[in-house]
Design goal:
There is one protein chain. Helices cover 75% and strands 3% of the residues. It is mainly α and 399 residues long. The chain has a two-stranded antiparallel ribbon. Strand 1 and strand 2 form a beta hairpin. The radius of gyration is 44 Å and the shape is rod-shaped.
Length: 399
């Protein structure tokens, strides 16, 4: 509607101007440095229009190559994007070789080839072609040096996926040198140290991981517990053991694996009386099976008193297999063979385990029942192996 109105107004204006010019075309004189130019007004208007038209045409000619180049670039980018999309689809469908070729071809015409090279490297990785994978990663770094971190992280993830632990560690350390406290790199290093069971390195890295990396709280707790457990397991004496246990954060001090490591450390250091005392206090506040079993391994100063305490607990935990095993062990230490046998047979009826069968077999050997002891050992080994082993044949040597 607006355009129609404008056209009508222009036609009216043109008709009015033409009428005026036809009645009196006017006269224009231009005197410039002795040159005299005479013309009518319509001629001046036509010359002015021709001048502006020439300027417009020259401008179009000047910018034409640039616009042609831009159009060609848009066309190439569109084609490259289509190739990349088809390549990604091929990789997603499991056609890794075809996808790799298409992604590589698209990279040569792409405005940002980094993604193409990284995805081509992934396709080569999925084919097990490590040399081609590393070549694509090299080209990605060569084309875009500022993307070094992305390339190194991708390479480290590929190496971890294939179990190339030493190479992955070297890659992550190089990344750590280039970009200190990179969150994802620290998380990968923590995962790698945990897999390699390098507890010393993991212990040193944990503060940085907690500060800079986004690792699940449960994973961080698992790593921290494993590190503290290693320190407790390797403590050489009571003093270093106490220091290691003191370093455990308060929320983790109740973790059963750390408590087991601590009490075993006390026994290893010969501090059985301290272990017995602290175990009694721990069980009084929180009854837990692993600690109950440890109480039967503590060599207290008074074996009979220790047995009496365990049998006193049986009043409230009469069918606790862990407590029955502990009572059996304390009976063995007090040379109460009959009671020990009764306790062990009750445990076997409630919750048999290789550990129980081992104790039972040793007791039967002590009682001179070799055949029954062999059967007990066989049953225990069968539980470890996950199937029933054939009965052990007993032979009597004759002289």
């Amino acid at each position: 509607m607006k355009i129609g109105i404008i056209i009508v107004l222009v036609l009216f204006a043109s008709a009015f101007a033409a009428d005026l010019l036809l009645r009196d075309p006017g006269y224009v004189v231009i005197n410039f440095r002795g040159y005299l130019i005479e013309m009518s007004v319509p001629v001046l208007v036509l010359l002015t229009a021709a001048l502006f038209g020439a300027i417009w045409l020259i401008r179009k000619i000047v910018v034409a190559p640039r616009r042609i180049g831009q159009a060609a670039g848009r066309y190439r980018s569109a084609r490259s994007g289509q190739k990349m999309t088809r390549g990604m689809i091929a990789v997603a469908e499991g056609n890794f070789a075809r996808g790799e070729k298409m992604l590589a071809r698209a990279a040569s015409t792409s405005d940002s080839p980094l993604f193409n090279y990284l995805q081509a490297a992934r396709a080569a990785h999925l084919q097990g072609q490590n040399d081609r994978r590393d070549e694509w990663l090299r080209l990605a770094y060569q084309e875009i040096p500022e993307a070094a971190n992305a390339v190194l992280l991708t390479q480290a993830e590929f190496q971890l996926d294939q179990g190339q632990h030493e190479q992955a560690l070297a890659t992550l350390r190089r990344l750590d040198e280039n970009s200190k406290d990179h969150g994802h790199a620290l998380a990968l290093m923590g995962r790698l140290y945990f897999r390699l069971q390098d507890w010393t390195a993991l212990r040193e890295l944990l503060p940085r991981i907690k500060k800079h990396a986004q690792v699940k709280p449960d994973t961080l707790t698992e790593w921290a517990i494993r590190v503290h457990r290693e320190q407790l397991d390797t403590a050489a004496d009571g003093e270093s053991l106490a220091a290691a246990f003191k370093a455990v954060p308060k929320p983790q001090k109740s973790d059963i694996t750390l408590l087991e490591a601590y009490y075993k450390g006390l026994m290893r250091a010969g501090l059985h009386d301290k272990a017995e005392k602290e175990l009694v206090a721990a069980l009084k506040s929180n009854w837990r099976g692993p600690l109950v079993r440890l109480f039967g391994l503590v060599e207290g100063a008074d074996n009979s008193k220790q047995l009496k305490r365990a049998e006193g607990w049986l009043g409230q935990h009469s069918e606790d297999p862990d407590l029955l095993l502990t009572a059996a062990r304390l009976c063995l230490r007090n040379e109460l063979w009959g009671k020990a046998r009764s306790y062990l047979e009750t445990v076997i009826g409630l919750r048999p385990s290789p550990e129980v069968y081992q104790e039972y077999g040793a007791l039967l050997n002590q009682l001179g029942e070799a055949d029954a002891a062999a059967d007990a050992y066989r049953d225990g080994l069968g539980m470890v192996a996950g199937n029933n082993l054939p009965a052990i044949e007993h032979k009597t040597d004759s002289f």
